[in-house]
UniProtKB/TrEMBL annotation:
It comes from the Eukaryota. SUPFAM superfamilies: Actin-like ATPase domain. This is N-acetyl-D-glucosamine kinase. Belongs to the eukaryotic-type N-acetylglucosamine kinase family. GO terms for molecular function: N-acetylglucosamine kinase activity. CDD domains: ASKHA_NBD_DdNAGK-like (cd24081).
């Protein structure tokens, strides 16, 4: 679309906008909020999608940073997005939050209550795991299909048209998200320690990881790791593991192959539990691919390998790499929920 026309469209939305919706993608590494106009309800979304304001902050997973810090991060990022949009908080009609760490109805209730302290009763509030926002970024707000997220953490999450849902993995590093960035890097660090003490084969990972961390000996890895064992800090070593695999290191290749199988098995588990491929297993369904581990700009393409593994079992899997960010997906979920709730001829 012509940029001048797109700019005109955005100005038109801004001038006509009396109500807005917020979409929040709250992850373990960062939290993003977008403020979008409540554009007219129809079968066709505007292109490009108008974003009035966007703000970013740190972690909002209360399992990682605690309830007070998580709540403050969510409140701050929403306030900033509203402020950048040039609208008042009273203009907010609905908020959809996809937040890492929301894994149970009690988690949803906790975050919902935080929002009720911020927004009045007429504002619609929808709370989900951040996987929902990621799925919606590929399906443009429709909760149907499966999403695979593989960044610092990993999770597969699926929805059916009748509202059933299922998840696999996403339980954090202690409980085995081994296909995640953290899992890959932790395997890499473990391989270095095993090679050093004679329990495992020698590997290029030793010199590459030590160089990247400015360390002189594998013995120093213990102090480095436990000085700050945060998930994102460990996961930052994924590119080193990938580069070693691309250089032909057998240990690094095995780590990535194991990660592929972990990620693919989580997708297959969700598809099977929800019968997303139909009774015969041959039906088509979207698989939305999100997260730095799945980015296709490497010769060792983890995302493509995962899809190839899934396709061997479910030939109807249709991979989607989203064109919008998860926060926009969350906002579109709110828009779709409102669309279902309002009378057909108005805003309700």
């Amino acid at each position: 679309m012509d940029q001048n026309f797109a700019g005109f469209q955005l100005m038109r939305f801004e001038s006509e906008c009396s109500e807005v919706i917020l979409g929040v993608d709250g992850g373990t590494t960062s939290t993003v909020c977008v403020c979008m106009p409540l554009f007219p309800f129809s079968d066709h979304l505007p292109d490009p999608l108008p974003v009035l304001g966007r703000a970013a902050a740190g972690c909002s997973n209360y399992n990682s940073v605690g309830e007070v810090a998580a709540r403050d991060t969510l409140a701050t990022v929403m306030e900033e997005a509203i402020s950048k949009s040039g609208v008042k908080k009273s203009a907010v009609r609905a908020v959809c939050l996809g937040v890492s760490g929301v894994n149970h109805p009690k988690d949803e209730e906790r975050v919902f209550n935080w929002m009720r302290d911020i927004f009045p009763a007429h504002v619609k509030i929808y709370v989900h795991n951040d996987a929902v926002a990621a799925l919606a970024s590929g399906t443009m707000g429709k909760l149907l299909g499966c999403v695979l997220i593989a960044g610092t953490g990993s999770i597969s999450f699926g929805f059916t048209e009748d509202g059933r849902e299922a998840r696999a993995a996403g339980a954090g590093p202690v409980l085995g998200d081994w296909g995640s960035g953290y899992g890959i890097a932790a395997w890499g660090l473990t391989a270095v320690v095993r090679a050093h003490d004679g329990r495992g084969p020698q590997t290029m990972l030793t010199s590459r990881i030590l160089d990247s961390l400015g360390l002189s000996s594998p013995d120093e890895l213990i102090g480095w790791t436990y000085a700050d064992p945060s998930w994102a800090r460990i996961a930052a070593l994924v590119p080193v593991v990938v580069s070693c695999a691309e250089a032909g290191d057998q240990v690094a290749n095995e780590i990535l192959n194991n990660a592929v199988q972990e990620l693919a098995s989580s997708v297959k588990a969700v598809v099977q539990r929800l019968s997303l491929a139909g009774e015969d297993g041959k039906g088509s369904f979207p698989v939305v691919m999100v997260g730095g581990v799945l980015q296709p700009n490497r010769s060792w393409d983890i995302g493509s390998e995962v899809i190839n593994s899934v396709l061997k079992t479910y030939a109807g899997a249709c991979p989607i790499r989203p064109k919008v960010e998860p926060a926009i997906g969350a906002a579109l979920v709110a828009w779709n929920f409102l669309l279902k709730e309002i009378p057909a001829n108005g805003h309700g």
